[in-house]
Task: inverse folding
């Protein structure tokens, strides 16, 4: 138990530090947005570039990982959407927003620091593969579904075009592409440039967790807790279970079994709370209060679920 707390403790201490220092007035919510921009636009892209540029291209393009993580995410999204429509009696737009919260992890701000502490050799590769699935596939698909549910006849084509345009200018995607290019070419950066990139990459873990904590200040569970409980359960329990089943089923569909460490990384990544931009995306569809409450509840609950998962993995 102490070993598990040694892993998860620093993660949630950093989140708590961001929360309490912001609540005490040492920092403000606008400061968190500024810190978040630094992480998203510089630190995480540098880390992604470093993780990919220093590895052979064959190690990066892991088809088994991509299929397992995507399949588990799609199953979670589909089950969540269907359950909200049938049993929750919500409309298509609300169901899409809630399914988004269940199937898209916070791989960068929370997942990566935990992977660094538990599975350091594969943490960077796992994050890069998660980013491919989430940013290039899951989020565009969910946004297109939301636009269609909102009644936009041209929602699919317009949303996919608009999302594609945003993706190619996204710093994290640029970091991914540059890392792929360097890995494919076999080139090595000059020492000064490599160390400079490394400095920014090292800043990603602590600052990203601090930002999560500061962002959570001011949110209230209130009367929405009962509504968001299924979203939280779906994200923290159903999503990792679906990814685990998908990863275990790979040999049955003719794919190479996943490396044990990468398999654990995929399951752990799926067990993280929902992505930090969930509230921002849901805001466009009038579901920001539910999304913000779900994000807060999932972040708090993940301390126990992730700790429990790590304990289970250590005993296997």
Result:
């Amino acid at each position: 138990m102490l070993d598990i707390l040694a892993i998860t403790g620093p993660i949630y201490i950093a989140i708590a530090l961001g929360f309490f220092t912001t609540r005490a007035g040492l920092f403000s919510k606008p400061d968190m947005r500024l810190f978040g921009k630094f992480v998203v636009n510089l630190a995480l892209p540098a880390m992604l570039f470093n993780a990919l540029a220093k590895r052979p291209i064959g190690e990066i393009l892991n088809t088994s990982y991509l299929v397992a993580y995507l399949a588990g995410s799609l199953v979670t999204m589909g089950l969540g959407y269907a359950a909200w429509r049938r049993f929750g009696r919500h409309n298509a737009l609300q169901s899409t927003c809630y399914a988004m919260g269940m199937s898209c992890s916070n791989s960068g701000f929370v997942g990566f620091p935990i992977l660094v502490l538990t599975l350091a050799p594969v943490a960077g590769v796992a994050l890069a593969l998660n980013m491919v699935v989430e940013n290039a596939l899951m989020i565009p698909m969910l946004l297109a579904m939301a636009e269609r549910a909102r009644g936009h006849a041209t929602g699919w084509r317009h949303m996919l075009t608009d999302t594609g345009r945003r993706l190619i200018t996204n710093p994290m995607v640029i970091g991914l592409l540059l890392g792929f290019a360097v890995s494919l070419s076999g080139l090595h950066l000059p020492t000064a440039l490599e160390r400079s990139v490394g400095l920014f990459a090292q800043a990603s873990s602590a600052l990203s967790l601090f930002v999560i904590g500061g962002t959570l200040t001011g949110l209230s569970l209130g009367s929405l807790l009962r509504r968001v409980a299924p979203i939280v359960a779906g994200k923290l329990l159903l999503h990792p279970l679906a990814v685990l089943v998908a990863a275990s089923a790979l040999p049955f569909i003719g794919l190479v079994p996943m490396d044990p460490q990468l398999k654990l990384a995929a399951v752990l990544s799926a067990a993280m709370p929902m992505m930090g931009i969930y509230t921002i995306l849901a805001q466009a569809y009038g579901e920001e209060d539910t999304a913000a409450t779900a994000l807060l509840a999932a972040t708090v609950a993940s301390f126990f679920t992730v700790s429990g998962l790590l304990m289970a993995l250590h005993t296997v």
In short: The domain at 2-315 is CATH 1.20.1530.20 (Na+/H+ antiporter like fold).
